[in-house]
Amino acid sequence: MLRLVFIFFAAAAVHVFGLPRLDVAPQPCLAPLQWEGRLVQYDHSTGRNTRAAASYDAQNQRIRILQQHKKHTPCQKFFEYIFLYQSGLMFQIDQKTKQCSKITLTEAWDPFDIPSNSTFEDQYFIGGPGDMVEVQEWSDRKPARKHETWVGVYTLKDCYPVQETYTKNSSVTTSTRFFDIELGISDPNVFTPPSTCQSASPERMMADSKC
Questions:
Q1: Which of 152, 156, 169, 193 is the most buried (most CB within 10 A)?
Q2: By C-alpha distance, which of 1, 63, 32 is closest to 184?
């Protein structure tokens, strides 16, 4: 009986909410190339949330991340990160002292979008009656691989990123939530490293330090 009730509810949901037809294969949408907004990244291995403002420029393959702190955290540093993938460099700037590190990027540019060969997982509404946003969920799951290493949730209407979960290996998994997105880049200068980076150290700075 429960199975019949579930089947009936599922059929009714398709009729009422307009979920995708099974005979029409969904196609990945095209995510915006330039935007500003905020994000929260959760590291599953450490249990730590990192809040930041973000400027994203896929056209020039660059990202600027400005860590945000809403409360006093003794002995913890907060950084600005400027990723310049076309130059293969990342700049890490201490927000307080402006001390700078210049690091060579070892990974290729990986945009916030849905790759064309992604696997469609689901389509659903976030929220409830009267206040809902329709989204699609995609992954890199393939028939020959048991588990996916990337899952992305994007809005159906404008293809804004909502959440991405990325598994690098068995010990590193991060989930990133996006919000308050505005199209365009209000100040392109945020991608220019400060003058202190002319004498940057090649060593990455640690977030936790001795008081």
A1: 152
A2: 32
Contacts 24+ apart (CB under 8 A), 100-106: 100/193, 100/194, 100/196, 100/197, 100/199, 100/200, 100/201, 101/200, 101/201, 101/202, 101/203, 101/204, 101/205, 102/197, 102/200, 102/201, 102/202, 103/202, 103/204
Q: Does this model's pTM top 0.90?
A: no
- DSSP notation for 119-139: EEEEEEEEEETTEEEEEEEEE
pLDDT tens across the length of the chain (211 residues): 334 333 333 334 444 445 555 567 899 999 999 999 999 999 998 888 999 999 999 999 999 999 998 666 667 789 999 999 999 999 999 999 999 999 999 999 999 999 999 999 999 999 999 999 999 999 999 876 667 899 999 999 999 999 999 998 777 799 999 999 999 999 999 999 999 999 999 999 987 766 5
What is residue 74's DSSP assignment? T
